[in-house]
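Quality-control log, excerpt.
Job 1 of 2 completed; input and output follow.
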Amino acid sequence: MLPQTDYKKLLTEVIKKQIIILGPDITLTKARNVAGLTIADDGSVLEITGDPQVLTQKLIEQFTELSGLIVKKTMEPLLSSFPGLTPNTIPFQAPLPPQPTQQEAQTTQEKDLNHPNS
């Protein structure tokens, strides 16, 4: 397993690349959904609490869920220009985002109260 500093670098790179693609607001919101990661406003991972491999997978899942929706939204105008095709006839469905557990929701609320500008 990589040292924690290497995971911080890897996760920071993933987040910063997503900031370029998705913008900082969406990217930081999705990245901060991963309990166990502390992320600065510039996308740098400041702290990892827990198994870094699991957290890396969870971070990637956050962006994968979002990309399915992005693909669907970008394809809708294109598909609408072809008679007989509607977005509903193309069998791609964005996965539903997981709902936070009560504990995760409470943790997020506590973080928001402790760091209102983050």
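Job 2 of 2 completed; input and output follow.
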Amino acid sequence: MKRIEKVFLLLFTIIAVQAVAVAEANAGEAWLSELDEDQDGYISLKEAVADTRLLRLFSRIDDNADGQLSIDELKASEEVELLSMRASAK
């Protein structure tokens, strides 16, 4: 009987952790969507002004130096992941 309880506890823990990860990812995507005012799929420097933390990191995230942040650049940046998690916590 104890073994079954441990298995259920493990499964519950895995499901709970996965649910939290999905919720954080969705909140992060919503945050980025809010910043992309013209919905062109890029965050321009003008749009980044709305979030001073992102603005400070803009040049580090903009790998190809084209003055806008693509989805790929944003996903590749660990800093953006932290920013979107903080934004979703508000």
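Post-run check on job 2. Residues 25-89 form a domain with the Recoverin; domain 1 fold (CATH 1.10.238.10).
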